[in-house]
Structure prediction request, 84 residues.
Amino acid sequence: MIPPDNSFRDNLRKERIWFVKKSVEWVNSVPNEIWSKEQCDFIDSLFSNRKNFPLTREQYLHMIEKARSLSTRRKGNPPMPAKK
Prediction:
């Protein structure tokens, strides 16, 4: 497998940071009662749909552990890019 290049990783990181900032803006702009209700509805929908998930919990955890043991990627987060 060819690892992604640094520009791809930087773009992915920027997209994640943008998403987190937008989420924070929304949480800060919405009353707590609405935010809490939407979170509750989302979590409830995940629980109600869990039987449609193709893997059991044990199968999923086994798959993740196997991937980690086979990975040559170093542990931890990649270094942050230098500030410009």
Notes: The chain is about 65% helix and 0% strand.
